[in-house]
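Readers of this paper often ask what the protein records in our data store actually look like. The remainder of this section carries one protein's record, kept here as part of the documentation.

:::
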Amino acid sequence: MAQYSQKSLVIPTGVCLTSEYCYLDKKEQVDDVHNTPVIIVSDHAEAKANVKAIYRGDVVVTQGHRTIKADVATLRQPENIITAEENVYFYDGEISVYGKSLESNLDTKETTVLDAEYSMMCMQGRGKAKRLLKKGTISYELEAGNYTTCPNNDNSWRLSAGKIEKKANEIFATLYHAKFEILDTPIFYLPYLRVPVESGRLTGFLYPSVHLNNKDGFTLITPFYWSIDPKHDMLITPKYMSKRGLFTRVEPRYLTDVGKGSMVFEYIGKDNFFSDLDRSWGVNWKHSGLKEHWKYDSNYSKVSEIGYFSRHNDSRVGKREDNTLLQTGEVSYRDNHWDGTLSVRNFQALSNTASVYRILPQISFNYYPPITEDGFDFTIPSQISNFTTDDDSKPDSTRIHLEPTFTLPYNLPWLNATAEGKVLYTYYAQRNIKSIESINGTKLEATVSRVVPMTRLHAGVTLEKDTRIWDSTYTQTFEPQMQYLFLKKVNQSSIYNPVDYTVGGYDTARLQTDYYGLFRSNQFSSVDYINPANQFTLGATSRFFDDAYKERFNIAFGQIYYLARYNNQNNTSIAYSAWAVESESNLNDKLFIRGSVEYNSYLNKVQFGNATLEYRNGHFFAQTSYRYVAKRYIASTIMPDNIKLITKEGISQAGFITGFPLGKGTSLQGQYFHDLTQDKMLENQFGITYTASCWTIGLSYNEYQRARININDPTKYANNITLSFSLFGLGAGANTKFRFRAPNRNMLGYRNPFGLNN
């Protein structure tokens, strides 16, 4: 029922008022409409009871958050239909419309506006229509209309059609006899077109992209998204390359009661550029899930040939810097005081020199009873593993490992201390061992039992004080820590390990020693070799916090002091390890610096190091980086014969990345990486992007060094040119800022190593 008032009303404009009303069921919606009063304000009114009422002069009709404004309006009863003419305005929190005339059913919310000019309130979009029909809450129909996400007075692009429909609960709009226009000029015509106007999942073609490079030639990519049901979908991406043929990628995803997963299938038939291959394919499957006490994980990847990723740089199965592909699966069961895991693991080698072990299977069991009141903790990790390989120069083995561990912590606000003791017991049953000798000429044994006791005492203190630097107050902490570690020396030469045997170890490799690695009990990734130790480790960290307690700077440094050195360690006459130093600073939330180095003071040489400097200010950023690894350090981790294939003088690489606006919507991004030891470019990339209010276009050039098995082989480069175009406001990411990305998933590129950016 209408209520009449002379009180002035405020006309809402430009505000999204998406109501919870549209989520109610139909019965609740009807009750809600009938219970919402209609308020009409005008200069003059004349009415005939239960027939109609005519209002003239600044007429404003409101019902909840719906508003109609006009010079003349008529309310027909009992139909509860209002018509309006002259300077008509309609608003319901989701759309605002100016038009010549209007008819609206106040019960059903069906509204028709002629000669309409509309703007969407809760998403980007505006346009005109000869006739606009709004059904209910979120269903629209336009005749002789157009649509754009550009702001007012900007006709950069628009979609025009004889008819446009947007149904409730759909993210796509359907256009009949559609034309795409740029600057009011028709570019192409389609009798039928569907475009996304909201974020969500709906079957249809996604935006195509175009690339150009010397290997693929002209490339057209036309992805198609298939929303199968709420728990299954699929992305199908055909990629036509003028020099190579058709490459197809299919990516299904699923959600089940036992987890979620995704797959990638890639295939190309006859490759005209690589004529030695009849076909090329890759596959990946990932799954993870939890159900009550059970946990499931799998990751399986396989490709048709070892050079797959150098041929397909944009593959989603893996990356071109990968040396192996993982093929693993595991099932775990967890309870309050124990857990167990059954896993299998295999690898596909991606080089002729790579040799890998399969683990078929591995059974892990961990027991951890409740911690006592005084904090005493006892655990028994255990594992049974079966290792096999196709390399006849390497042994196979079954390994059983148990590691009962006792831990007693002691903590105060300024002190933390831990006493730990364990016994590492390992049993090996080794096969195919006749022709295998260690570096010193010893032989493997078929069965080996090894027992290594370990004692570890660790303590750390946190001290702090206020200090002033450059007229600013900081809280400085000083956090020294000390560790004593003892691991009994036992003869391990009868086990295939990475110290006594060249590239030995079933699943064990030497770990890089950084500052935090100084405090590890084992310097290897697994238990095929347990380094003997009788040593102290001393280290300290200092941090600086500003008056908002934001960390601005830290530095950590440490060194190991050996009470005893053993014959299998590098130099038994040296009583200390190399210094490990790490530091990071955030000077003013714009300038960031991070670096680490390992320095051998005995040799007066740096073993490895890296540094990154980055400056950010608004849309401008620049980052320069450097990394170094000494040849001697690399040689200690691989076969001596392979060092000549990998490097001549170690690794010394520098890079620079930047991105900044050039003004008026144009931005530039570029990067360059150089190998200083060979004085050769590794990779460069240059891109320029123009971003308007409702569209963007980007052009990029990328050149990179192809992978080489032998560093002495001639250097070859690949390059590509990419042109990308996007319209803002159509579908997911409509309101996100455009950022240029290289199409080839480059190996180097931008990295964010900073931790002090909180």
User: Anything to note?
Assistant: Confidence is low (pLDDT under 50) at residues 1-8, 19-31, 732-747. The chain is about 5% helix and 55% strand.
